[in-house]
Amino acid sequence: MTTVLESLNRALHECLAESPQVRLLGEDVLDPYGGAFKVTRGLSGAFPARVLTTPVSEAGIVGLGVGMALRGLRPVVEIMFGDFVLLAADQLVNHAAKLRWMTGDQARVPLVVRTPMGGGRGYGPTHSQSLEKHLLGAPGLRTLAATAAGDPGALLKTAVLLDDDPVLFIEHKLLYGKDLMAGGDEVEKLPVGDRYPAYRLRVAGAPPPSLTLVSYGYPAELALQALKTLAFEHEVFAELFVCTQLAPFDTGLLKESLALTHRLLTIEEGTRSLGWGAEVVAGALEAHGAGLRAGRVAAQDLPIPAAQALEAAVLPAPDSITSAALALAR
Amino acid sequence: MNPCDDPLELYRRMLLIRLFEERALESFSRGLVYGTTHTAIGQEADAVGVVSCTRPGDVIVSNHRGHGHFLAYGGPAEALAAEMMGRATGVCRGRGGSQHLHWEDFYASGILGGTIPLAAGMALAERERSAGAVVVAFLGDGTLGEGVVYESLNLASLWTLPLVLVVENNRYAQTTPIARHLAGSLTGRFAAFGIPVEEAETTDVLEVRRLTQPRLDAARAGEGPQALILHTYRFSAHSKGDDTRDPAEIERYRMADPLPLHAARLAASEVERVQREVQQDLERAFAAALAAAPASPASLTPALGSTP
Known about the structure:
The complex is a heterodimer of chains A (about 325) and B (about 300).
Chain A: H1 4-18, E1 22-26, H2 43-46, E2 51-53, H3 58-70, E3 74-78, H4 89-102, E4 112-117, E5 142-145, H5 152-162, E6 167-172, E7 187-192, E8 198-203, E9 211-215, H6 217-234, E10 238-242, E11 245-247, H7 255-261, E12 263-271, H8 276-288, E13 293-299, H9 308-314, H10 318-329
Parallel strand pairs in A: 1-2, 1-3, 3-4, 4-6, 5-6, 9-10, 9-12, 12-13
Antiparallel strand pairs in A: 5-11, 7-8, 8-10
Helix pairs in contact in A: 1-5, 3-4, 6-10
Chain B: H1 7-29, H2 44-51, E1 59-62, H3 67-73, H4 77-84, E2 102-103, E3 106-108, H5 115-129, E4 135-140, H6 147-158, E5 163-169, E6 172-173, E7 176-177, H7 186-191, E8 197-201, H8 205-220, E9 226-231, H9 247-254, H10 258-263, H11 268-291
Parallel strand pairs in B: 1-3, 1-4, 4-5, 5-9, 8-9
Antiparallel strand pairs in B: 2-3, 6-7
């Protein structure tokens, strides 16, 4: 079995081995520590000249990455906690994302900024958030999310080695220890799309779905549990799309499913208002809207509290997904 | 790319900047240009003095007040005028406008300070390319208020990057005089990071060159980042007409206008010839820009080049 963490770590090794242009920068990334979440473990030992541990300067190191990318390198910058990515928001939105386009397509910024997001570990209001929603929709910035339903290492390698545009790569902390989903007997998995695929999951042998679930990252794990509960305890058959590309979001992905179900439920860990789910629902209504009913499961519009019971109350859970799905299905 | 060491060519470049900027302002008042602009009238010696010391392959990182740097670098006046006029022939196809320019190894952006870590990253990439290229980044006194500048100074010094920071202290952050926006020492800001720094009160292009060359040489030789602070003055408003400064103060600084200062060293007949030639060049450049097709909405390609 391979965990998400092992998959990402192996991918970074391969990126450094396969392309002399790749550089890795981040805070505390050197061995023996190997990064706060150990995604970079072993890299500085293997590639000492190309793995740079940096000062605590998120804006500085993302900007440094933009400059390196403009001049022919393929930098990967780690932001230790996703909560800190806002310190680099100017670099991402005003520089990385715009430079290619605003120079009349002359410049290229093949930069990947990786960062762990998400709660469920009791880290409190500034170390638990899913802040990607604030950067989704910046023209010129692609946002990807690792999932255990796919191959997160392959996703990261594609972004680092093949994508000539900047990528924000989101890794939910609770995914690191998860085993990659094996093609088991219980759930069927069908990749949809090419470079950054989504994964379409159904309970094996289930009748045609009456509900479309859409999610990404760790909340997709919760949605998968809900998918099974809905099938085995309620005889409500849904299908779950686990997306890897959050932005730009391709609504066409859902066309065939929505034509069948006319029911859409989005599941995310970002706060509910004005978030990713809102965009997915709005896009689906515009494109496939006739008779569509939709709902959203997300974090409450609150900071994430530190106490375990409070945190659990704020974040989405399998039960809340199941209830929302049942309300929509009936 | 660079004007040669010929004093007459240095004059030609400074005059090109002066007359370009004057035409740009005049084009605004005639309604030929849309948007805004920040002219560098009075600061020509900085741009020409510094950039004329660079070598082909060196990278220039400029800011919102970047026309002078661009023209000093050898960027085409016609493509710059066309960019400001929203023409398809603009240097960035009409997308960037006055503040966002990219041509060969020249980059400019309107985000103050946000460009400095980029410049450091470029310097890191250039060092690894081993061609001996140096990155020169221009910033103004106002930009010293941006925090990311200091992150970049730390990184550049820590990693001995071939970066030369040129602070053009024109004594105002838009309308706010330096006494009201900057505490402490200008040179101390660089010294604190172990970055060698020199400063000068000058509008003499030869003096600027004399100060710049050792900074570039040191950065190129692997001695790490270098800083040069040029105390200068802009005779024009911050952008188009927003000038709240005392006219008497402006007149006082006009006494040190870099153009007549340098022209006094040259033969009057040569100066007159260059003046005629630059006027003609700009006449042609602005006419060609004006005659060019406007950038078409059909040229709006997607923001992401590679689709999944």
